[in-house]
Amino acid sequence: MLPTLTYLQFHALFVVPVVAGLALTATYRLGSRRDVLTGTAILAGLALIYTTPWDGALIRRGVWWYGDGTVLVRFWSIPLGEYLFFVLQTVLVGLWIARFRVDTDRPLATPLRTRLVGFGAALVVVLTGLALLRSDSGLYLGSLLAWSGPILAIQWAFGWHFLAKEWRTVGGATLAPALYLCSIDSIAIRLGVWTLSEQYTTGYAIPLLDLPIEEAVFFFLTTLFVVQGVVLYVWLVDRWK
Fold this sequence. Notes:
Strand content: 5-15%
Largest sheet: 2 strands, antiparallel
Helix content: 55-70%
Strand order of the largest sheet: 1-4
Order of helices and strands: HHEEEHHHHEEEH
């Protein structure tokens, strides 16, 4: 018996229409259209390059798997739909953050001590992840935190103080798409499009969504990466101009 949705049908129903709607109604308050789209495109490419090895390793380990008939083609053990998701999520969030404003008049010059604070905070995330990796149940969450640490280190060392001053924009632009992505992920899990291993997850879930905590952390962090990345890119380009 085939599942309700294939991975590509999942995109066609829940992801592509949202991306199209955001593109058709886009307003570029964050920066110029060119700067926002260029920053988003760069982040989409980096998402593919950086996420592929980690994602493939967890799939081969059996941290999650896909329902019968949900995957039409794979590359290096990763479904085509997964690669598309790396790009589509980045574009979705980039078009969403474009609607927000930031004050780019703040100078780029940052004391080394301030940069080290951001780097130190990211290091804590990595160390937390490594500690979780000591048990099977912490594999997904631990590897996720360790994987996210280098990205956070780059972004926070460069401009955590700027992001903190723009916390309303960063928070608002992160929470809405992350919540939507968590909601549709919960639907996909219930439909059997993909399934998470009980052995490699903590067993904790978000009550209202019945979503494993690992998935919620993943969508929050990856959305945050894009929001922070686009904001910092626009700030950097604006200061250079």
